[in-house]
Amino acid sequence: MKIYIGSTNPTKVEAVKRVFSNDDVSSVEVESKVAAQPFSDEETLEGAVNRARECAIMKKSELGIGLEGGVMEIDDDLFLCNWGVLVDQKENVYRASGARIPLPDEIKEGLKTGRELGELMDAYASSANVSKHEGAIGIFTNGVIKREEMFTHVVKLLKGQWERDQQ
Ligand SMILES: O=P(O)(O)OP(=O)(O)OP(=O)(O)OC[C@H]1O[C@@H](n2cnc3c(O)ncnc32)[C@H](O)[C@@H]1O
Ligand SMILES: [Mg+2]
């Protein structure tokens, strides 16, 4: 199958390649059409839907996949949230979310002043492109669950739901 993933972030592309290891997976930069830093489940999911739809209409595409990262509030805490969407040629839409953990106050305050998580994490970890490597989830779980593994789980949830409908 020809599959497009709407991002060139290696944590997202590798997750899709791992789960769809027998398929032809291509990465393509598409617009999420939401804020660079989504601030709710709804907005993060919308970004993933927009990316997946763009991918599903690419030439020869059989499946389009969108993965989007954001944050969401529960009471006074901000949690990492990630959503994945798979769109097939019948325009069926499958959705799944990833594991979530709370962010420390220091990161929360930075986000509230309008800064992006990617930039805040690089400063926090004194490293470059955390979002393309272990991610915030990797840093705050001491490397136990990294961003690619979290997205792999999301893509498995999408694949399983879609496969069930193909029987
Ligand atoms: O190229 P794309 O696919 O856009 O990849 P991205 O790393 O920008 O990822 P998202 O747009 O999905 O995430 C929205 C913002 O949140 C940041 N972000 C989300 N999850 C993160 C994580 O686990 N670690 C670091 N930054 C993260 C990311 O850098 C963006 O600023
Ligand atoms: Mg982005």
From TrEMBL:
Gene Ontology biological-process annotations? nucleotide metabolic process
Recorded catalytic activity of this chain's protein: XTP + H2O = XDP + phosphate + H(+); ITP + H2O = IDP + phosphate + H(+)
Superkingdom to which the source organism belongs: Bacteria
The enzyme's E.C. designation: 3.6.1.73
Annotated Pfam families: NTPase_I-T
Q: Where is the Non-canonical purine NTP phosphatase/PRRC1 domain?
A: 6-155
Q: Which UniProt keywords apply?
A: Hydrolase, Magnesium, Manganese, Metal-binding, Nucleotide metabolism, Nucleotide-binding
Kindly list the cofactors needed.
Answer: Mn(2+); Mg(2+)
The Gene Ontology terms for molecular function here are:
ITPase activity; metal ion binding; nucleotide binding
InterPro entries attached here?
ITPase-like_fam, NTPase/PRRC1, YjjX_NTPase
What the entry lists under NCBIfam families is as follows:
PRK03114.1
Q: Write the protein's name.
A: inosine/xanthosine triphosphatase
